């Protein structure tokens, strides 16, 4: 420790008290933390590698299987529709838990008085999120090309369809951002209300016991 840390330790230590003994499991906890960090890094590398492989495979399939005419790709409209739907499902399944992983400490701090209620709240919000994501994906799926909107009478991909699919992807990102933003704002309020209810119940129990 530095000199400042020694001075702080001596100032906080009771008069005449001996220095506290070192923790017996300190070395084990340090090793466990190092192993956890390595596991997280390996997991991140695997996820990145899987995304790279998926993007490369999708690009190769599009280039190999899409028919050409005078060097131009003539992709059927339903291929882009399926690809966009797969991207929406991937974003909903991956991005939600990714954001929630960084919010666990925040939720634990908000529901520190009743952690069981906090866990139940997180589970319920996850169910609500996935229901909203599924509804958004189903609402935006196209089973036939809307010729009045895309202005195309051929069954191939055109620029208006690409724009529509980009709007779908941007829409689900907006929905995820709005839902998590509302959760960040409302969670402290709900945590405070739950804490107050718990304290009121305890006060009522103590008062009833005193009367008895």
Written account of the structure:
With 212 residues, the chain is an all-alpha fold. Helices cover 78% and strands 2% of the residues. It has seven helices and two strands, in the order ααββααααα. The protein has a two-stranded antiparallel ribbon with strand order 1-2. A hairpin with a 2-residue loop joins β1 and β2. The longest helix is centred in the C-terminal third of the chain and has 53 residues, at 159-211.
Write the layout of secondary structure elements.
Layout: H1 3-12, H2 26-65, E1 68-69, E2 72-73, H3 77-102, H4 104-110, H5 115-140, H6 147-150, H7 159-211
Antiparallel strand pairs: 1-2
Which descriptors would you attach to this protein?
two-stranded antiparallel sheet, mainly alpha, 2 strands
Strand content: under 5%
Q: Which strands sit side by side, in order, in the main sheet?
A: 1-2
Rounded mean pLDDT score: 75
Care to count the β-strands? 2
DSSP helix fraction: over 70%
End-to-end distance, in Å?
56 Å
Radius of gyration over C-alpha positions, nearest whole angstrom: 28 Å
Largest sheet: 2 strands, antiparallel
General shape: elongated
Helix/strand order: HHEEHHHHH
């Amino acid at each position: 420790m530095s000199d400042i840390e020694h001075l702080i330790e001596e100032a906080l230590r009771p008069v005449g008290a001996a220095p506290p003994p070192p923790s017996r499991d300190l070395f084990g906890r340090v090793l466990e933390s190092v192993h956890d960090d390595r596991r997280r890094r390996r997991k991140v590398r695997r996820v990145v590698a899987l995304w790279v492989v998926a993007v490369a495979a999708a690009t190769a399939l599009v280039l190999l299987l899409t028919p050409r005419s005078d060097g131009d790709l003539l992709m059927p409209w339903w291929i882009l529709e399926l690809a966009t739907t797969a991207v929406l499902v991937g974003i909903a399944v991956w991005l939600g838990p990714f954001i929630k992983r960084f919010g666990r400490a925040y939720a634990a701090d908000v529901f520190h008085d009743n952690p069981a209620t906090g866990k139940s709240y997180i589970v319920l919000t996850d169910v609500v999120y996935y229901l909203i994501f599924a509804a958004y994906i189903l609402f935006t799926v196209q089973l036939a090309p809307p010729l009045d909107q895309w202005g195309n009478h051929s069954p191939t991909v055109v620029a208006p369809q690409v724009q529509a699919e980009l709007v779908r992807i941007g829409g689900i990102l907006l929905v995820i951002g709005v839902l998590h933003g509302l959760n960040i704002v409302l969670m402290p309020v709900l945590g405070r209300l739950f804490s107050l209810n718990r304290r009121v119940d305890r006060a009522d129990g103590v008062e009833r016991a005193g009367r008895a």
